[in-house]
Amino acid sequence: MLYGRASLSNKVKNPLIQPILNEKALFRDMVQYSTDASPSQQCASADSIHHYFTANQPSLFVPCQRYDRYSFCQEYYLFQFNASSSTCQRFVRQPCRPHRLLSSIDIRGGLYRGVTLTFMLSLNRMNRFPYILQRWHGPISVAFFVTEREVPALAEKIAAVPRQNVVYSVYVRRNTTIQNTPWHKLPSGLKRYFPKGVFPINLLRDLTIESISTSHYLVIDVDIFLSERIYDRINSYGHWLQDERLILLLPLFGYRSNRTTSLNSKSLQSTPAPFLMNPAAFRCYEKDDCKEAWEHIPRDKKTLKKGVSRGDFAAVTRYHYVINPAIWMGFSVSVPMRGVVTENMEPYAVVRRSPRNPIFHPFFFDYGGDKMSFFVYLRSMKRYTSFVMPIDFGFNIPHKQTAVSTQFRKQKKTHPMSVFYHYMKYTLYDSLHIRTH
Length: 437
Prior knowledge:
Number of strands: 19
Shape: globular
Oligomer: single chain
Helix content: 25-40%
Membrane topology: Single-pass type II membrane protein
Strand content: 15-25%
Radius of gyration: 21 Å
Structural class: alpha+beta
GO cellular component, one term: membrane
Organism: Blastocystis sp. subtype 1 (strain ATCC 50177 / NandII)
Subcellular location: Membrane
Pfam family, one: Glyco_transf_49
Largest sheet: 12 strands, mixed
Number of domains: 1
Number of helices: 17
């Protein structure tokens, strides 16, 4: 058992399926981490970060190791920059702080030991970073995806960040040639090639999770801005979070659109178009002119409620219906509320990092099923209780849609990530006798 965890792969007896379900073993093979941080050096400037990478590329190189169905191959380099110690080093997986001591690599002690914000991004979304820093005052573990050509620019950006409690895991995609073109292995065994590469979305999430030194992490996407005092309030729920089976869910809001829900709607269904979208949000969606829209995103529940009353903001319920939004808006007590995670949901949440808890399945890339698959694992284990943060929230910022998300929506039934997600889900549910809706 990897990390001493009773993996789902041990509960599914089919030997053809077991390897695909053990996401921690897959992560280990795809990252090839060790407990040795060398080569390491002090990195006090952007130049020293860039020099570390160029001088140590052979040691930082990660070749492909997995060739299963549904896997993908993309050669890359991997290193970390720890801003608190100004150190560049190889990626090192941090020990867990589990509820119970399950293996020799774990740290003894099951109390709540703080929470780290985790997310990943590419260089073209760095403009979100200052807003996230303004609203989150605790430790951060972030993964960057860049090309070899972008490393100098990334070094400049992260060296200029005015925060020390940040760990950066940097995934550098190796320059693509005919010999090393990234590919994805289809269920048939055939390979689909990606000359422009793939975005290893869940591998990046796992890099952030396995880099934390706290007991818990809050997983978000870089397009989510948080309420301003969320870090302090999560810490105030420490006695709740001592139970590793408790998941603390984040209600999600956004500028009103046909993807959000009007709280004035009796049926709480999608708001019917046409409607008048906030002009600043419209400019952001259509022209990528986002500063005004981002500056006016609410920082607290009181401001959020005013925006909802005006019709500017609304609850995001598609894939994020963790609680009835109208009930949440009227709730004034600072005690977590009972929530729910149903099938095909992908909420943002505070989760304990534990040998007994899953990480994100690293075979997912680009877009589709990546977060949902994590909650399929949680549902399959039948051991988790969900609560909702009563005061704090996330806000889905307006932004232009990516090409990969657009492609996924056009090919939703046949897209490789959708196929893998449904294969995973129904394999688990059938094997563990879980009823589906």
